[in-house]
Recover the amino acids of this structure.
């Protein structure tokens, strides 16, 4: 038996003890989660790019795990289950946090930006020089949306991705572009 299987065995034992015995639940939960606290915190920081909010999100993750653990079934690795919960908490935070909504650059803002600066050719050239600074995926979606004037539905079919993935890619590309502009 290797080390990973031994660790999994300890985890599953702690989980089954947590589920079956309510008297020592808090201690078992603490023993179970202690090795993952740094991982959860780093994951939250990576997802939301804000260390102070990440602390609060880790607390939210721990609360959700504590509430969901009685119904947990080891169909997948415990670590995978924790990561999924952490990602969902981060996505919920990002979608509800107004600070992040203010940073969204929409197509209308970009159109206004370009049209108000039509007289300044250098600015438009600089804008075109910024596109190569983006990742390949970001360049691709910006070109399809703004240069080819395709709808999100058409882009999702061309790239063979879901509509939500298409929207997220465009959102991230516009966010990256807005950071380059500022």
């Amino acid at each position: 038996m290797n080390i990973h299987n031994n660790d999994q065995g300890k985890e599953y034992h702690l989980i089954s003890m947590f589920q079956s015995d309510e008297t020592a639940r808090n201690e078992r939960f603490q023993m179970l989660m202690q090795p993952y606290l740094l991982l959860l915190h780093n994951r939250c920081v990576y997802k939301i790019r804000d260390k102070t909010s990440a602390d609060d999100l880790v607390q939210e993750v721990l609360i959700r795990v504590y509430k969901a653990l009685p119904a947990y079934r080891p169909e997948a690795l415990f670590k995978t289950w924790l990561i999924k919960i952490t990602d969902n908490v981060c996505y919920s935070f990002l979608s509800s946090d107004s600070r992040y909504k203010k940073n969204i650059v929409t197509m209308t803002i970009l159109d206004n930006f370009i049209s108000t600066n039509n007289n300044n050719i250098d600015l438009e050239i600089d804008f075109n020089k910024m596109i190569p600074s983006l990742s390949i995926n970001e360049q691709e979606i910006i070109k399809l949306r703004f240069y080819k004037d395709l709808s999100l539905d058409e882009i999702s079919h061309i790239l063979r991705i879901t509509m939500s993935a298409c929207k997220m890619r465009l959102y991230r590309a516009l966010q990256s572009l807005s950071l380059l502009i500022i």
